[in-house]
Amino acid sequence: MQRKDEVFDYKNLVVGNAYSKNEALVTANVRPLNNNKEITGITSFNNCIVLFVTLDKSGKESSHKYNDIFLDNGKKFHWESQNKNTIETPHMRKIFTGETVILFVRTHEKIKSSSQPFIYIGRLSYIEHNGNKPVQVLYDVLDYQKKPNKALSAIYAWEKIDTLDIDNKLPEILKKEKLSYQGRVADVKKKKVIELYAMNKAIEHYEQQGFEVLDTSSNSPYDLECHKNDTIRRVEVKGTTTEGSAVYVTSNEVASACSDECETDLYIVNNINIFLQEDGNYYADGGSVNIIKNWKPEEKFLEATVYRYHLSKK
């Protein structure tokens, strides 16, 4: 029997619980996996379409960095199909005509080389779509939990830094949602929580090393200035919910680190977990630290992502 002929009994699944792909299949009373590649990101069953989504795609090729993200504190979900899909692809047409969509999500594929399970999000309801190859789809999360457990809370609140910046070239549906009042407020809150969490961890680290630490982030192109005896060390602090394979730095931050005025460390807190609280605010937890001592950013490791265009220049 092919997957499209099987009935995926999602009523056996519990929202917020963790499942491997195989555990999800067995719990839903369908055949176990024949191999790890049999069930990919989207699979059509007789009674529904099942999505398995990994949010953090920082280790993927740029063509596969799909904009999959929760909006409105978890009440909506923006999903991009694979690049080969069009609005005429059979399973896409099913989605547009109201087929039940079931969603499993994990933040990271692996943590410390260990594969991570998926969290069962529940049913999705189609709202609208846009584009082709990939197709962008906006859903309502029908089984949204007002009081999510810790795993669900982290997934509802997770955001990659690219989508926190509306100036980036985001898909139209996602841009529209994030330009709404609720979207703007949520983004500001998340960025602030991530920044403060990373800053506090950095301050604690350097104080434990015996430094007197000054917060210079509001008036200098570096975040911390650390003093110990006759030693002065500058620190650029970055926080991210991704695995931290790349971080965003400004031209001023690069220039400061490359100058001979003072040695600079790049202090990165990656894999930060952001949790949504009942009052609508966020808090951060976890993460791992990567410190690049005496950071001198080389041009070959820098990628231009934004330019300032002058209409006229004398």
From TrEMBL:
It comes from the Bacteria. This is DUF3427 domain-containing protein. Residues 194-272 form the Protein NO VEIN C-terminal domain. GO terms for molecular function: nucleic acid binding. Residues 13-130 form the DUF3427 domain. It comes from Proteus faecis. Pfam families: DUF3427, NOV_C. InterPro entries: DUF3427, NOV_C, tRNA_endonuc-like_dom_sf.
